[in-house]
Amino acid sequence: MGKTDPRVDQYIAKSADFAKPILMHIRKVVHGACPDVEETMKWSFPHFGYKGMMCSMAAFKGHCAFGFWKSSLVLDQPAGDDGMGHFGKITSLGDLPPDRQLAAYVKKAARLNDDGVRVAKRPSAPKKPLTVPTDFAEAIKRKAAARKTFDAFSPSQRREYVEWVTDAKTDATRQKRMATAVDWLSEGKTRNWKYEPK
Questions:
Q1: Domains of the chain with bracketed CATH
Q2: CA distances from 129 to 33, 86, 159 (A)
C-alpha cells in the first residue's frame, strides 16, 4: 500500500478550484500504477517517490503541471516546454494523456527506479563571473546588515539576488526589487527564503 502525506491533501485543498480535480486525478493514477509509491513535499509542491524520486505535480494560478524525474527515459516523445512539467500547461483533465498511457509512464518510471537506472547529467556551461551592478552594490553598502549578509553568502546565493535584480523588465521594477533585496538581506534572508524549509 502506498504512503500518502497529509501535506499533499492540504496542498490540493488550497489549490484553485480548477486545479483540484486535476491534482486528485494525477494522484489517483500514480497510486494505482505504483501501489508502493510514497508522497512527500519538496520545494513546496507534491512529489511521488518509489526507490527514489519518480514524478511531481504542481498547481499555479492558471494551470497545473506534472512531470517525471527521468523524463527523457520515461516519455515516448520529447518533453513539452510550455510551463513546468512535461505535459505543457494543464488546465483540465483533457490536457492529460489517457489514464492508461499515464499509468504506463508511472510504471516505466517505477521500473527504472527498480533497476537503479540513472540519467546522465548534462555538463553545465561554465558560469560567467558574477558582476554586481553598481547601483545594486551601492544600495547594499548603504545598509551594513545587508552588506554583511551579502558578503557572507555563497557565490550562488549572491547570483540569485543579482539575476533577480538585473532580470527586471522596467526601471521601476528594478528599483522595487533592489529595495526588497536590501530589506531581505538586512534580515539575513536568501533570495528564495520563502521556499526554504522552516
A1: 6-114 (3.90.1150), 134-195 (no CATH)
A2: 46, 32, 10
